[in-house]
Design goal:
The chain has 5 helices and 9 strands, in the order αβββαβαβαββββα. With 208 residues, the protein is an alpha/beta fold. The protein has one domain: Glutaredoxin (3-Layer(aba) Sandwich), CATH 3.40.30.10. The strands form 3 sheets. The chain has a 5-stranded mixed beta sheet. A two-stranded antiparallel sheet has the order 1-2. α1 runs parallel beside α4 and α2 packs across α5.
């Protein structure tokens, strides 16, 4: 299953190479290429986002349809992530604080790519460290893999051992999904909270 996700991720990277280069990271972050602050443009014909079925921090089943009528800011990561994930989640929360009442129209969503360790209870403890608005989602390996595949997310264990003390390699982008469930924008790792807030205001004002 991970091999399928890896191939899908590489395919979308190739399609985006003319815009932002080939940029998977391993502990060092994504190289930035001075892209405009409205997000990375995805070439026509490249599908990003789509249906998913996952589990929230209470153990209840959640699907993409659960969020219809509201915008979503989606980030894929894991609770044991030492640096990039908490930094990006802090950026999301700061951006929502910056846009004030407009933030009521947006649901920030954190989807784990490490369901073996990130149980609903573990996610509940994690997301509350950032903001009460942050929704944590997990699921079975297959459910998480399906969601990651839909969003063209790459992830894999960074080491091949069977211990529980491992890191995960994963792509790091923030996805903006419209109230109709359609993909709207892709924001790069390292974007400032101010720039993300400006991009969100512009997207919401334009309706897409």
């Amino acid at each position: 299953m991970l091999k399928t996700i890896r191939y899908a991720a590489f395919a979308v990277i190739a399609a985006l190479a003319v815009v932002w280069g080939v940029v998977w990271w391993r502990g060092g972050g994504i190289a930035q290429f001075g892209l405009d602050n409205l997000g990375i443009s995805v070439p026509g014909g490249v599908s990003v986002g789509g249906p998913f079925t996952l589990v929230d921090t209470t153990g209840a089943t959640v699907t993409d349809a659960t969020f219809r009528g509201r915008w979503m800011l989606v980030y894929f990561g894991y609770t044991y992530c030492p640096d990039v994930c908490p930094t990006e989640l802090q950026t999301v929360v700061a951006a929502l604080d910056t846009i004030g009442p407009l933030a009521e129209r947006i649901v920030p969503v954190f989807i784990t790519i490490d369901p073996e360790r990130d149980t609903p209870a573990a996610l509940a403890e994690y997301v509350k460290l950032f903001d009460d608005r942050l929704v944590g989602l997990t699921g079975t390996k297959d459910q998480v893999a399906a969601a990651a595949r839909a969003y063209r997310v790459y992830y894999a264990r960074a080491n091949a051992t069977s211990t529980t003390a491992y890191l995960m390699d994963h792509s790091s982008f923030i996805y903006l999904i419209g109230p109709d469930g359609a993909f709207r924008a892709l924001f790069r790792q390292g974007m400032s909270a101010t720039d993300l807030a400006d991009a969100l205001k512009a997207r919401l004002a334009a309706g897409g």
